Amino acid sequence: MNQVGVIIVDDHALVREGLKTILKYQDGINVLGMAENGLEAVRLCKRLNPDVVLMDLSMPVKSGIQAIQELVGEGNSLKFLALTAHVDAEHVFSALDAGASGYVLKNSTSEELVMAIRTVMDGKVYLAPGISGEVAKGFLQKGRGQSCQKLDSLTKREKEILKNILTGYKNREIAELLNISVKTVEKHRANLMKKLGTKSIAELRAYGERISSRGIFL
């Protein structure tokens, strides 16, 4: 069984130690390290390259949301589990929109925590049972509506460029596939990134993963 490398991020030492103790005895899960704020979390993730990050949302220096956004923006393939006591829609929306793959409540059982880790490792989204169906439904509707509006603003050619970028093709390969110049590809790419509010190819791919998780396809 492949080991799942986990980093625990929380500004309370007792919470960090408690989670470490829980995960220590789980087969296939290895706690690589712990951090007490988002800034430390970013540095630790870059150094240890974990599979899953248990990320508290409300922390000093740099919040969990900010840390997730920074790491997602750099194109990391990490899976993030928001770990919080907040059950309101605003916190759920913020965490998932930032790039979290799951939302776990701090009053969850150890079994639920392990299930959440394994769920996101399987490429699925995990929402704690304490999160109401209406909150989840609201997120999907909100996210789908906003994403669809952005995608609708793209031209047919820009959508073709985006689809090929998300597939992994480089500019020259896209130019050959669509029978256009590399300069034209670069122009279309710049336009679609501006419309989607992304600043790099890594952010563009992260955006593609998020809309796919919401059931939106090009």
Describe the structure.
With 218 residues, the chain is an alpha/beta fold. It folds into 2 domains: 128 residues, Response regulator (Rossmann fold); 75 residues, Winged helix-like DNA-binding domain superfamily/Winged helix DNA-binding domain (Arc Repressor Mutant, subunit A), CATH 1.10.10. The chain contains 10 helices and 6 strands, in the order βαβαβαβαβαβααααα. Helix 4 packs across helix 6.
Number of domains: 2
Structural class by helix and strand composition: alpha/beta
Q: State mean pLDDT (0 to 100 scale).
A: 82
Order of helices and strands: EHEHEHEHEHEHHHHH
Low-confidence runs: none
Indicate the percent of residues in helices: 55-70%
Distance between the terminal alpha carbons, to the nearest Å?
36 Å
State the gist of this model:
The chain is an alpha/beta fold and 218 residues long. The chain contains 10 helices and 6 strands, in the order E-H-E-H-E-H-E-H-E-H-E-H-H-H-H-H.
Task: Draw up the topology in text.
Blueprint (H helix, E strand, L loop, with lengths): L3 E6 L3 H12 L4 E7 L2 H11 L3 E5 L7 H10 L5 E6 L4 H10 L3 E4 L4 H12 L4 E2 L5 H20 L3 H12 L3 H8 L3 H15 L4 H13 L5
Parallel strand pairs: 1-2, 1-3, 3-4, 4-5, 5-6
Helix pairs in contact: 2-3, 4-6, 7-9, 8-9
Which key phrases capture this entry?
six-stranded parallel β-sheet; Arc Repressor Mutant, subunit A; 2 domains; alpha/beta; elongated; Rossmann fold; 218 residues
